[in-house]
Every structure is written in structure tokens, then in C-alpha cells.
Amino acid sequence: MLSRKWKIIITLILVAVLGLSVLAAKERASDPHLQARTIQSIDDKTETVLKLTATSTLASAALSALPQDIATPIANKLADLTEYFLLILCVLYSEKYLLSIIGVGVLKYMIPLCCLLGIGFVWLNKRFSLQNNWFRFILKLLAVSLALFFLIPGSIGISDFIYDTYKSSINTTISSAESLTDEATALTDAEEDKGTGLFKSNFLTDAAERLAEKASGILRRFVEALAVLIATSCLIPILCLLFFLWLIKQITGLDLLSRIPLPKDKGFPRENRRAGPDKRTNE
To answer: What is d(CA 19, CA 21) in angstroms, rounded to the nearest whole number?
Structure first.
């Protein structure tokens, strides 16, 4: 049983934590520079995705205009990648907005709620026990709050290690795609002027085949860049969420990963199916 002195000390500590949490939430909401590094990382990935989307679209349009439709299949594949880049873009924007919303929500509401529940637990319970359901609920709520608070910054910090390794390769892909677009556009213009006698048809065909071969290599680079962005922007946040949920389970025993019980089979029970013939036999 806690003495009155210790109850007062714990109450003062919780009140101080509550005040600091609300103050931090106010500063976090009014000053985005407190998260400048994380936001800058998201903005860098967003800019890269926008460049990849633009270059793949322009390259697709330029390749589809080549003579004899030599590079049309590759152009179609590049156009299909645009949908995936837009999906990654939506994920990045969601992370950017959730970073502020979740952070402020945890600091302004969830942490203060834990402090208020802690004060109530200290003064309303005669015995201080770690097995008390009230105390365990406070620990679970605090663990969930901290997991939500560190989820996005933690996942972005981990994904940056992978993204920085492939960043130069992605930039090279963008430059190569821009160069390919210029070459394909020039070849298309030349194909339109072939009637002047300056360019022969077989020369244009050979040039188009070389561009198609070059485009196939750039397509592979685009697929590699897409895989890196999916891993860093989508998979790693999911894995971090699963890790935090597992960590919460290990600390508090709260299993948020448990499956929801499936409804039982709505068909007739086996006993009833066997009872039918027995009933007819008795009759």
C-alpha cells in the first residue's frame, strides 16, 4: 500500500507529464520544423516518384510513336507502371499527413488520458498491484500510444537505409528515360520527313529497333525502382507496425494480432444428419 507521501509525489509527476505532453502537442502542431527531417525524407521520395511517373509517361508516348510499332509493347508496359507510381504517391502523402495527426493525437489526448487514469488509480485503489486490471489497462494504452507515435518516424528511418543505397540508380533511370524520350522524338520527326529523301526507311527501322532494345533495358530499371519504392514506402511501414504490435504483446500481453473467431458452419450438425435415418428406422 502506497503512503500518502508517495501518492502525492506520483501525482505531481503525472501532472507534470500531462502538462509537458499537451505543451509538446501544441508546439508540434504549430511548428512543423520539429519533424523537418522526417518530412524532408518523405518529400524526397515524393519528388522521385513524381519524376518517375512523368518520365515513364513521356517515354511511353514517345516509344508508341516509333515507326512500325516496334516499341509499342514496351510503351504499354511503361504506361502500366504509372498506376503503381500513383499508388506509392498516395501512400507517401498519407504518411506525411498521418505523421502530424497521430503525433498530435497521442500527445494531446492519449498520453494525458494515461496520466489521468494513473492519478485515479493511485488515489482510488487501496493496494498497488501490477496485476490490477486498471493498472494493466493503463500500461496497454500507454504502449499503444508510444507504438503509434514512433511508427511512422521509425519506419521512415529504416526505409532510408535502403532508399539511399538505390537513390543514385533511380536518378540514373530517370536520366536514361529522358534521353530515350528525346531520341524517340527525334526519330519520329525523322520518320515524318523521310519523303524528302534525307532518310531511308531501313535506316529508320534499324534505329527504331536499337531504341526498342535500349527501352527494354530502361523498363527493367523502372521495375527495379518500383520494387525499391514499394519496399521502402509500403512494406517496411507494414513490417514496423507488425513489430510494434508484437512488442506490445510481449510487454503488456495485449494480443492485437489475434484472429477474429470465424463463424461456425451454418449447415446441419453431423448429429442431426445421422439422426434422420435413425428416426425413420424407428418409425
So the answer is: 5
Q: Assess if residue 279 is contained within a domain.
A: no
> What would the mean pLDDT of 165-193 be, rounded to a whole number?
83
Q: What is the DSSP letter of 234?
A: I
Q: What DSSP designation does 33 have? A: G
Note the pTM of the prediction, 2 decimals.
0.73
Number of domain units in the chain? 1
> How is 129-154 classified by DSSP, letter by letter?
-TT-HHHHHHHHHHHHHHHHHHHHHH
- 265 lies in a domain? no
CA dihedral 35, 41, 42, 48 (to 10 degrees): 160
Cβ partners under 8 Å of residue 161, min gap 6: none
Handedness of CA 228, 231, 232, 234 (dihedral sign): positive
Q: How far is CA 50 from CA 10, 156, 164, 232, in A?
A: 51, 19, 17, 16
Integer-rounded Cα Rg, in Å, for the chain is 31
158-176 average pLDDT score: 88
Please enumerate, as own/partner, the contacts of 226-231 that have beta carbons within 8 Å and a separation of 24 or more.
226/52, 226/81, 226/84, 226/85, 226/88, 228/162, 228/163, 228/166, 228/170, 229/45, 229/48, 229/49, 229/52, 229/85, 229/88, 230/84, 230/88, 231/159, 231/162
Higher-pLDDT residue of 44, 143: 44
Domain residue limits at 233: 4-192+199-257
Q: Find how far residue 75's CA is from the centre of its chain.
A: 28
| 234 found inside a domain | yes
**What are the DSSP E strand ranges found in 127-240?**
none
